[in-house]
Amino acid sequence: MPSPSSETPNARRAFWRGYRNALPFVLIVAPFGLVFGVVALEAGFTVSQAMAFTIGTYAGAAQLAAIQLLTEQAPLAIVIFTALAVNARMAMYSAALAPHLGQAPLWQRAMLGYFMVDQTYALSAIEYENRPRMSLGEKVAYYMGVAALVWPTWVAASLVGVIAGNLIPDWVPLGFAVPIAFTAMIGPMLRTMAHVAAALMSVVAALLLSGVPYSLGLILAALLAMGTGALVESWMVKRGTWT
């Protein structure tokens, strides 16, 4: 993990501010990682296979979706499509942060891309909006400060889950981490009617389409939510009520 020691004092402060701001997410990322480790263990993954998967992919929701489909013996094409679809939001995250980080050197952008997860995006987007005068170096440092806590937590928790998953009692509700993680990140971002409409559509559609084979109902729900958000946003712009 890169160190901010060689950066300016402002960049160092930004790095540690990102690290501190990420601390609450440890309570969510750690159980989420444990869930992945346990599921990987139950799916027959070895420790090395599970860790290669979690470090090489570093995409929690997509990893869980892929493993679930593999255990259901879904066609490989469905597994790949679902994992890519679940992770497609990273493209939108990247586009949203491009105005802030797009001028960074290629090697830095590649590094930032690898560490792009919901937490790094959400915290960075809020920070950049609240501190519009941050320099590029400060923005990169803040982003990496978040990643410096989130990534090791995810990897360590995944390792514990795959090694000691059988020792975790069934009554321990590890599954709570997944919905809480997304609720904690999405909640503060529901700032307009379009955001709220998209969120409501995603929930309703996901419930109604829960019976679709291979969890493809989630993909359909996401598409419906995006379409709903776009329509409401267009309507708000025409009415001049974009707030």
From TrEMBL:
Keywords: Cell membrane, Membrane, Transmembrane, Transmembrane helix, Transport. One of its GO terms (biological process) is L-valine transmembrane transport. The keyword Zinc does not apply. InterPro entries: Brnchd-chn_aa_trnsp_permease. Pfam families: AzlC (PF03591). GO terms for cellular component: plasma membrane. The keyword Disulfide bond does not apply. It is found in: Cell membrane. The chain crosses the membrane at residues 21-41, 74-98, 140-165, 171-187. It is a multi-pass membrane protein. Belongs to the AzlC family. This is Branched-chain amino acid transporter AzlC. It comes from Pararhodobacter oceanensis.
